[in-house]
Design a protein that fits this description.
heterodimer, A: about 120 residues, mainly beta, seven-stranded mixed beta sheet, four-stranded antiparallel beta sheet, globular, B: about 110 residues, six-stranded mixed beta sheet
């Protein structure tokens, strides 16, 4: 099956410029995640969508970062204006959404895209 | 929120030897612990996971152990091979925040031929 697609793969911008990243999840995956991975660190969740609704955006710097998933499929993440500390790899991941009987959620594996490496000069 | 610490940050082993990576977590409600492998320039990929209702899980040369009382879990790779060279991340999650993953900082494993 096709995996999670992301574009662009690389982006170099100057500080205070704007940038946008695109993600296409695996077909049928209702849950979509955006992570920021700074060099030498583990991925940090920025925002999580369930279909087109936001589940968790507690770690998204909302003064400069925004994300949307208007039709519940593709998603875009935008940074405006960018800062030097935004240099990182931005990973998109997706997973199925399923419930067990009684309303319990079951964990479904998150599949990651190749990421977009952002360099802010 | 959940805090996951991972040690060591780098690990060099001779081919054929074993590698062990340890992680601790802070939230006693966490009940799902996946391990991801990330090769240079590539995406993270799940290699093994464990749920809190078991203490150990094996998959060929890879095993994971979990100590809920001490709130730590470990990844064991036996008979290491050059293709095991990568960065390994542990993570912890609990169900009632929609399985949000909190990752450790990663361990760079180098297998010397």
């Amino acid at each position: 099956e096709a995996g999670v697609a992301q574009s662009p793969r690389y982006k170099i911008i100057e500080k205070r410029q704007s940038v946008a990243f695109w993600c296409n999840p695996i077909s049928g995956h209702a849950t979509l995640y955006w992570y920021q991975q700074i060099l030498g660190q583990g991925p940090k969740l920025l925002i999580q969508f369930q279909n087109n609704g936001v589940v968790d955006d507690s770690q998204l710097p909302k003064d400069r970062f925004s994300a949307e998933r208007l039709k519940g499929v593709d998603s875009t993440l935008k940074i405006q204006p960018a800062k030097l500390e935004d240099s990182a790899v931005y990973l998109c991941a997706s997973s199925l959404f399923s419930h067990l009987a009684g309303g319990t959620r079951t964990y479904n594996e998150q599949f990651f895209g190749p990421g977009t490496r952002l360099t802010v000069l | 929120g959940e805090n996951v610490e991972q040690h060591p940050s780098t690990l060099s082993v001779q081919e054929g030897d074993s590698a062990v990576i340890k992680c601790t977590y802070s939230d006693s409600a966490s009940n799902y612990f996946p391990w991801y492998k990330q090769e240079l320039g590539k995406r993270p990929q799940l290699i093994i996971d464990i749920r809190s209702n078991v203490g150990e899980k094996k998959d060929q040369r890879i095993a994971v152990t979990l100590n809920k009382t001490a709130k730590h879990f470990s990844l064991h790779i036996t008979e290491t091979q050059p293709e095991d060279s990568a960065v390994y991340f542990c993570a912890a999650s609990r169900p009632h925040n929609d399985y949000k993953l909190s990752f450790g900082a990663g361990t760079t494993v180098t297998v010397r031929a």
